[in-house]
Design a protein that fits this description.
- The complex is a heterodimer of chains A (111) and B (120).
- Chain A is mainly beta and 111 residues long.
- In chain A, 0% of the residues lie in helices and 49% in strands.
- Chain A has strands at 4-7, 10-13, 19-25, 38-43, 50-54, 58-59, 67-72, 75-80, 89-95, 101-102, 106-110.
- In chain A, the strands form two sheets. In chain A, strands 2, 4, 5, 6, 9, 10 and 11 form a seven-stranded mixed sheet that branches. A four-stranded antiparallel sheet of chain A has the order 1-3-8-7, with no helix packed on it.
- Chain B has 120 residues and is mostly beta strands.
- Chain B is built from no helices and eleven strands.
- In chain B, strands 2, 4, 5, 6, 9, 10 and 11 form a seven-stranded mixed sheet that branches.
- In chain B, β9 (92-99) and β10 (107-110) form a beta hairpin.
- Classes of the chains: A mainly beta (111), B mainly beta (120).
- The A-B interface holds A 1, 35, 37, 39, 41, 48-51, 54, 60-61, 92, 94-97, 99-105 and B 36, 38, 45-48, 51, 59, 61-62, 95, 101, 103-108, 110-113.
């Protein structure tokens, strides 16, 4: 089983400042087809998760460009260039290389 | 606009079988794509249950496969989840979602979720 580990668990942020979330997988998420099967989701309070990033770095339709995904192999990062109040919630990374599994989540809140 | 709506009993007794339905609108299931079930126990991380395509090819979480069946009804544009031998650990919000990546995730559209409590 591929285990996904996120850090930090909680991230207090100041509006307008950048933020960064780390996700590590227990094995490489690079498939032989050349794709990296790593997604990022945001779950706002009381809402369903929303897709932000797939293939590690491709923004989903309608996602603001202040969100960016990077990384390769086993280490990945989600960055928010300038945090807005609407960005609060829990962020999850998810791998789909072998079955599907999610990280434990990072709760982003405004300071 | 594609929309998904889960429905089912809010309360189920231990050892019984859960049956949930996800109604899809704005996109005929027979057109293609894959569809998944994901759940979220209170205060816990998201857990993938399984994925199905319009031809009923399925892929299940190995930890749940012995208790789970996912099916589709293309005539009704619905997918269903059946989970047996329920325990309190199955208490969770259950979501259906479209998997644009097929068996590779990319859950781009989600239902609002339905809360299921397992209790006597």
């Amino acid at each position: 089983d591929i285990v996904m580990t996120q850090s930090p668990l909680s991230l207090p942020v100041t509006p307008g400042e950048p933020a960064s979330i780390s996700c590590r997988s227990s094995q490489s998420l690079l498939h032989s087809d050349g794709y990296t099967y790593l997604d990022w989701y945001l779950q706002r309070p009381g809402q369903s998760p929303q897709l932000l990033i797939y293939f590690g770095s491709t923004r989903a339709s309608g996602v603001p460009d202040r969100f960016s995904g990077s990384g390769s192999g086993t280490d990945f990062t989600l960055k928010i260039s300038r945090v807005e109040a609407d960005d609060v919630g829990v962020y999850y990374c998810m791998q789909a290389l072998q079955a599907v599994s999610f990280g434990g989540g990072t709760k982003v809140e405004i300071k | 606009q594609v929309q998904l709506q889960e429905s089912g009993p809010g309360l189920v007794k231990p050892s019984e079988t859960l049956s949930l339905t996800c109604s899809v609108s704005g996109y005929p299931i027979i057109s293609g794509s894959y569809w998944g079930w994901i759940r979220q126990p209170p205060g816990n991380r998201l857990e993938w249950i399984g994925t199905i395509d319009h031809s009923e090819r399925t892929d299940y979480n190995p930890s749940l496969t012995s208790r789970v069946t996912i099916s589709v009804d293309t005539s009704k544009d619905q997918l269903s989840l059946r989970m047996g031998s329920l325990t309190a650990a199955d208490t969770a919000i259950y979501y259906c979602a479209r998997a644009s990546g097929g068996t590779r995730g990319i859950f781009d559209i989600w239902g609002q979720g339905t809360m299921v409590t397992v209790s006597s």
